[in-house]
């Protein structure tokens, strides 16, 4: 099967136009109402693109993939990224993210370190295209697959083909990969997300206690140096789906000296420049790490980056006990620890005037290390070589006869998002169950 598919991939670029063209004519004649690629899309699919052979995850050597590339070793697995985010093509072309540009080069062959195996990786938006691949990856969280396209996609699923859903977002922000109810438990074989019960677990960060070999102790009083300001918040998505984050920020701002930045704040900050962000936020003792969703184990870069920058996060998001489980010990302040917003404000003001008490939130830095995955790294994770190689490893370790589909879009997935706290005052900021956004696009600013 692998040899057959590889041969198809070599030849397909020269035959696809006529095949799809004939299909369009037949559909027109028989008046079959199905999704048909546009002329520009058909033309785009015929282009032979520059590819690269990757050795390991970082280095690369230029290679042109052509229809007569008979000298290429035949890949062990073919994977197609089905419907990528359009913004990835923009993001990976930014000058400051030039090291990610190879991620949007298709098709490409990936040599997976330590496996002696390789992957043919490609990209398509067309349901008709997926049947020739061993694995189909769904990662575009934007709402682009219509019910009709889901029908056609399932109709083109080949026998034994694996479907993988990859997302770094919460369940509330992934409409593009949510199948219709009739396909809920018939779609995905594997699941890649931040949750610990995922097939591929990729949290935004983690804490590891030091082992027998410990680094030299650091003087944690350095986390008092240049800390001239109290608390800050930075946000770029203002209207959230589950709870009213802006209402919380506004209420807190009335009772404490809170400075706000970003598109939702009083002062803009370049989101894609870590040094500028550090220069702005590094002078604050506390940072409001307010997640867009309150879901189990959902601790994003808003939390881990605050720790990295030497601040103490004040958190709204996952339950208190989940922060206790995954975060460094005594490194954060959770809203559920207080009986009112005013009590929280009083606590921060008290810590601000008591260096000894404040530094207790930094003692963990001498007993363990922080492993944080950057926001940009997490954003492009569905595209990177390491992700594809993890799929390859699981593919060859899984019984081909095991075709059990998993239903993540039930209690296991959506059921992991509940209220934003155990205290009534915290949940006063929750949206009503029938809440709808003013802007239909859930990703609108």
Structure description:
By secondary structure, the protein is of the alpha/beta class. It has 2 domains: 189 residues; 167 residues, Glycosyl transferase family 10, C-terminal domain (Rossmann fold, 3-Layer(aba) Sandwich), CATH 3.40.50. Helices cover 27% and strands 18% of the residues. The protein contains 13 helices and 16 strands. The strands form 3 sheets. It has a 9-stranded mixed sheet with strand order 2-1-4-5-3-6-7-8-9. Helix 4 links the parallel strand 6 and strand 7. The longest helix is centred in the first third of the chain and has 28 residues. About 14% of the residues have low confidence.
Helix fraction?
A: 25-40%
Q: How many whole angstroms does the radius of gyration measure?
A: 24 Å
Count of helical regions: 13
Number of strands: 16
Low-pLDDT windows of residues: 10-70
Beginning-to-end CA distance, first to last residue = 46 Å
Q: Which structural class fits the helix and strand makeup?
A: alpha/beta
Average predicted local confidence, pLDDT:
83
Strand content: 15-25%
Shape: globular
Elements, N to C (H/E): HHEEEHEEEHEEEEEHEHEHEHEHHEHHH
How many structural domains can be distinguished in the coordinates? 2
For the biggest sheet, the summary is: 9 strands, mixed
Spatial sequence of strands, sheet with the most strands: 2-1-4-5-3-6-7-8-9
């Amino acid at each position: 099967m692998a040899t057959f598919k590889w041969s198809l991939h070599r030849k397909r670029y020269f035959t696809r136009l006529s095949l799809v063209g004939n299909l369009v004519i037949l559909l027109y004649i028989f008046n079959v109402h199905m999704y048909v690629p546009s002329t520009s899309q058909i033309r785009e699919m015929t282009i032979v693109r520059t590819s690269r052979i990757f050795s390991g995850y970082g280095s690369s050597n230029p290679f042109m993939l052509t229809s007569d590339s008979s000298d290429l070793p035949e890949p062990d697995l073919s994977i197609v990224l089905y419907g990528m985010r359009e913004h990835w093509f923009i993001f990976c072309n930014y000058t400051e993210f030039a090291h990610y540009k190879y991620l949007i080069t298709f098709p490409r062959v990936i040599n997976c370190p330590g496996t002696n195996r390789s992957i043919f990786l490609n990209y398509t938006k067309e349901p008709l295209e997926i049947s020739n691949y061993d694995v189909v990856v769904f990662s575009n969280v934007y709402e682009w697959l219509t019910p009709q396209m889901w029908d056609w996609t399932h109709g083109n699923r080949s026998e034994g083909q694996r479907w993988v859903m990859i997302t770094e977002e919460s369940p509330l922000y992934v409409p593009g990969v949510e199948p219709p109810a009739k396909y809920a438990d018939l779609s995905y074989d594997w699941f890649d997300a931040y949750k610990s019960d995922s097939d591929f677990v990729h949290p935004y960060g983690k804490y590891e206690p030091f082992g027998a070999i410990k680094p030299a102790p650091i003087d944690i009083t350095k986390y008092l140096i240049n800390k001239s300001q109290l608390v800050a918040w930075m946000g770029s998505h203002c209207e959230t789906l589950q709870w009213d984050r802006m209402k919380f920020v506004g209420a807190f701002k009335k009772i404490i000296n809170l400075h706000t930045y970003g598109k939702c704040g009083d002062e803009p900050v370049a989101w894609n420049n870590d040094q500028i962000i550090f220069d702005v936020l590094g002078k604050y003792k506390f940072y409001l790490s307010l997640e867009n969703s309150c879901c189990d184990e959902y601790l994003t870069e808003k939390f881990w980056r605050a720790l990295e920058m030497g601040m103490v996060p004040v958190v709204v998001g996952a339950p208190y006990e989940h922060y206790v489980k995954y975060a460094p010990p005594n490194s954060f302040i959770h809203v559920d620890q207080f009986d009112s917003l005013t009590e929280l404000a009083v606590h921060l003001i008290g810590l601000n005037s008591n260096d000894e008490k404040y530094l207790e939130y930094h003692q963990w830095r001498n007993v363990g290390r922080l492993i944080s995955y950057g926001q940009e790294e997490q954003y492009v994770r569905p595209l990177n070589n390491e992700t594809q190689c993890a799929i390859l490893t699981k593919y060859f370790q899984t019984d081909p006869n095991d075709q059990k589909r998993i239903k993540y879009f039930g209690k296991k997935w959506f059921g992991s998002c509940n209220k934003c706290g155990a205290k009534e005052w915290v949940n006063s900021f929750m949206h009503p169950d029938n809440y709808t956004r003013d802007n239909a696009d859930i990703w609108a600013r």
